[in-house]
Design brief:
mainly beta, Jelly Rolls, 6-stranded antiparallel beta sheet, 7% helix, binds thymidine-5'-diphosphate
Length: 145
């Protein structure tokens, strides 16, 4: 994954890049994820983004409690990560690597390639009240914490 660093407090408390196991096989490769073993939560929900038109962006919010693992299972996209102090962009383009978001982090996804599929494993069921959708609100929560 290519990282573009900008100045500020480290994001590493909130975000971790995870190398998943990859079983290489002439019949095709296989990667697996077990809740509580490869990621620090039991998976309560799975969703995926696909058919994202060129130039479109997703995300643009943070979560109070949700933990997520994001994987580019096909194609590539960029994830902008922001903890209220530091912002960086990570390019996701490998089905055996994931971005683990452990705590409060603003995320934006853009630069989707044709055919990209963004798989997300989530620690909670969908709950709108867990979202922070306004960036100024996020900054005040993040900087308070
Ligand atoms: P949102 O999380 O804002 O999308 P993204 O961050 O990928 O751009 O969700 C978009 C819409 O989909 C919103 O109306 C809520 C709905 N939604 C669900 O109903 N369940 C889900 O698990 C998710 C992720 C979204």
């Amino acid at each position: 994954m290519k990282e573009i660093k900008k100045s500020g407090t480290s994001l590493s408390d909130a975000v971790e890049l995870i190398d998943l196991e990859r079983l290489s096989d002439p019949r095709g490769n296989l990667t697996f994820i077990e809740g509580g073993r490869h990621i620090p939560f039991d998976v309560q929900r799975v969703y995926y983004l696909y058919d994202v038109p060129a130039g479109e962006a997703r995300g643009g919010h943070a979560h109070h409690n949700l933990q997520q693992l994001i994987i580019a299972v096909a194609g590539s996209f960029d994830v902008i990560l922001d903890n209220g102090f530091e912002r960086k962009t990570v390019t996701c383009n490998r089905p055996f690597q994931g971005i683990l978001m452990k705590s409060l982090v603003w995320r934006e996804l853009n630069n989707f390639s044709s055919g990209a599929v963004c798989l997300v494993l989530a620690s909670m069921k969908y709950e709108e009240s867990d979202y922070i959708r306004n960036y100024e609100d996020f900054i005040s929560v993040a900087r308070k914490g």
